[in-house]
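Job type: complex structure
Entries:
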Amino acid sequence: MYHLRLVGQFARASVQNELAYRANFWISLLHSSLGLITGVLGLVVVFGQVETIRGWDLPSTLALLGVYQILAALRGLFIGPSLEALAGMDGEIWTGNFDFTLLRPVDAQFLASVRHWRPFALIDLVLGLGVLVAAVYQLATALSPLRLVAFLLTSLAAVTILYALQLAFSALTLWNPGFLFTWVLDGLFNMARYPVGLYPGWLRIVLTWLVPVGIMTTVPAQALTGTLPPGTLAGSLGAALVLLLAASALFRFGLRRYASASS
Amino acid sequence: MSGASANLRGGWALVKATWASWMEHRGFFYLVAFSWMIPLLIYMFIWSTAAGEGTVGGLTRGDLASYYVVLILVNQLTFSTNNWTVGDAIRYGRFNFLLLRPLSPVYDALASEVAVKVVFMTFALPLAAILALLLRARFDLSLANSLAFLPALLLAWALRWLWGYWLALLSFWATRADALLSLQESLIFLLAGQVAPVVLLPGPMQAAATILPFRYMVSFPVEILTGQLSSSDLGIGFALQVGWLFVALALFVVLWRAGLRRYSAVGG
Amino acid sequence: MSEPHIVVRDLSKTYRVPEREAGLLASLRGLFQRSYRDVEAVRGVTFDVAPGEMVGFIGPNGAGKTTTLKMLSGLLYPTAGEACVLGFSPWERRPDYLRQISMVMGNKSQMLWDIPPLDTFRVLGEIYHVPSAQAQRTVDELVALLEMEDLLTKPVRNLSLGERMKCELVAGLLHRPQVLFLDEPTLGLDVSMQGRLRRFLAEYNRQRDVTVILTSHYMADVVALCPRVILIHHGQLLYDGELQGLAQRLAPFKLIRVALRRPEWDPEGLPPGVDIVESENGRVTLRVGRAQAPALTAHLLNTLPVADLAVEDPPIEAVIDQVYQEGVS
């Protein structure tokens, strides 16, 4: 209850903060639309030359782009801004304002993860849902309730993995405040726009096992199109749990390190 | 004359200082270079997977790999950070510092251009070499193409730089002019051979790419080097590149003068 | 006397910092290897602070003041030694502990930048479990004390440095901490704003009986607020006691001011080891070792046409300045 109230307060303050600059809404709309248009046009260009690549055709890849857009929206809503304010450029770890976060009588990981909200990310959410729905209509096979459940579960796993990765990369900043680890994740996350199957073998392995950004969009899209390999549903939920625990441990460990090394 | 040479010396000192401070933050710049590369890498992988053992639009996997490897390098060389920093400097009043120096602000811009390019190359060159090996890029370079590549590259850099600079100068009038830069980045992505080599673009996009300036900022020299252009395409391309450069130069000069007048009138 | 609020025993902190050299070649070399060196920021510091006491932490830049404060507020793990504040070990960062302390830093802001201070206070009230009626009362009280009614509804980014510092203080005191750490609270403020903040802190300390540790570069802050000072230099505790005693302990000299009946006199006649600080129109100020002072006084009275003579301790700023520059022998 206390934590929910806190989240409410943070969201409220962030909305106020964002609305202080009216132009931000239009800029966000422009950025989101440009991102989506370039993404869709990119696919149109590729599938203008070839029918399918490794079993992926235009509608199924479009569905995956929709999943990506929704994930990116959730990330942009609070996970990204909060942890970016912590570990990003001029972030709290770099400026030392992280001290104030540590002085609060609240769990530091919770506080660091939900503090900043970017309401305009909801634009991305709407656009992403639009792409997803449009893609599902074009799919060759109809959507069954079972597939929908599998899609929702794998999406839950995807969001969890996304949060865990963002937290882990932010935690690394506690060891080396000068390096923007979250930017590396930004770059890798971009690769989730496309099915992992489209990448060369060695990169597929990296994106599945090392930094599993690939699982985040490919698996839900497979669930939606009914091409989910057996065991993948349980596997992605398990991976999400393991990653979440590991990232939290890393963050805690990083806090100790920060407290013993910063000046 | 002595004034000019003093400025050159000052300019060189600026290059050295900028380079030193950028090397100090090389981790940051490697990261920036890395994030610029990502979209190109993605499409490089996708196209080479799409080509498989066959061809796409007449290009083999080796052709596509070599095209993208060179494109990555050219993109790093022509990308200008000034476009963003100049706008910020105007917005946050830091432009005053630049105007206070007994040195034209253009030197400052050029200094960071040269310094950043060298820093980026220490990262991009080894990476490009590794990629070329991994993806078995196939280069057959002709002497003529190589000779035409260099002026095209230089012109591309000048065009991209000036084009971004005049856009950034719009910050004198509109505070959020950087939104236009995002639009330009999207157009470059779609039309300057990044999402696909221009020959693979669908008809209308290909036409737009040929006429608009964006292709001549990035992919034109790459197409020359990888031998995708006939000699008539080459001539038309150079003409358009030079033409757009003059347009950018004119816009830059006009906006620079008007902007400074406005800046000194309203204060920073 | 009740239990001390703060107990510090042999507290030490060592950092490992990368070394960098200037120049192009050096930065190139830095590509391949980095060298490190250990910095002993705090070395075996021991002291107690009683409830309601106001203690001034002084020392030159890099002396270890902020490091000590950060260990006491739980932001840093010590390398060795112990500290106990309000019965807690600070670096365990227990919520119950953090709710009872506060740290205000002159060079860092905890205010949200684009919205009015009242909204930051609301978020903080929620974080610290302050019931909203009580939060409102506390804000009203502090706002009255600091005379800042008109600032509450302006976005923080539009406030001046001094105005923002007032907000930082309200933010830091909202949950009525029992122990308050103030790190350079008057940094960058003009003289009259410094004075107002000092009066506020003195008044607040008197009303609420909070324990305060204050660091400041401005001796005037310390002189006005802290009956007791702790001097740290190179990470070591050099002095702990009354402000007045500091001069006697650390300045091994006295100032002798002499007014002469005739302006002309012969400085050659002075015994060795005496410095002339100033000499103008028959008014002479001499600096002499503490032990030598009585003998020199007698010598002056015997040999010169003295109209008036006074023996003084040097001003506190001068003493501190000397310690900062030369260290203590």
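Summary: Chain C has two domains: 6-248, 252-312. Chain C touches chain B through seven residues (CB under 8 Å).
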